[in-house]
Amino acid sequence: MAAGYDPNARHDALAPRAAVWRALRTLALVTLIGGGLAIAGFASFLRLVPSGDHGGAERADGIVALTGAAERLSDALRLLAAGGGKRLLISGVHPATTEVELSRAQPDYAPWARCCVDLGRRALNTAGNAVETRRWVERHQFRSLIVVTSGYHMPRTMMELAREMPDVALIPHPVVTDRLRGEPWWRDWATAKLMGGEYVKYVAALVRVRLAPRMSSAETATAGHAADAPRS
């Protein structure tokens, strides 16, 4: 053995490098597993998203439409006019919006807008829509509800509503927007971004619902208050 050679010196020099490689392998494995779970979850979410418009023959005690795409309001008023429900709640309306503006925007349904539509102006998000809807349903003692919102938004909406109203029958009426009615969503960056963003919101809502099956009073006060009182 050469004078001054220490066999442990090489081992000590290689130890940090081996530790780095082990950490990188662990990180790669965790990333791979996490990516696989995310892809599987996204695929499951896509199966929950309705792929086409509803026929519009649903019947329930009431109808709720969540504000957003213009098609939601048109479909909800069409259902109301066809006798799909006794009253319609439009949840998440801008505070400055009036019943007169609603009638002007949908002149074909003006008689129903004047008699049987309630505007909920307090909800700021989907959780708030659910709180607003629950209080409206309780006020009218409804036991069934048609839910009108965009197809990609329907899974999260139904989950939030079911959390607030476990004893109310919820009937989904998905609205497919023009953006999703055309070419497949994955071919358009804006649409793909929309779907990816909604999936992230769905997962966040799912975790929150699992951890807290029903909103606390503090959350309720933050998310939204009761819908405006119905007009006579």
Automatic annotation (TrEMBL):
Protein name: YdcF family protein
Keyword match Phosphoprotein: no
All residue ranges annotated as the DUF218 domain in the record: 61-185
Segments passing through the bilayer: 27-49
Organism: Methylopila musalis
Entry-linked CDD domains: YdcF-like
InterPro entries: Cell_Envelope_Assoc, DUF218, Rossmann-like_a/b/a_fold
Keyword line: Membrane, Transmembrane, Transmembrane helix
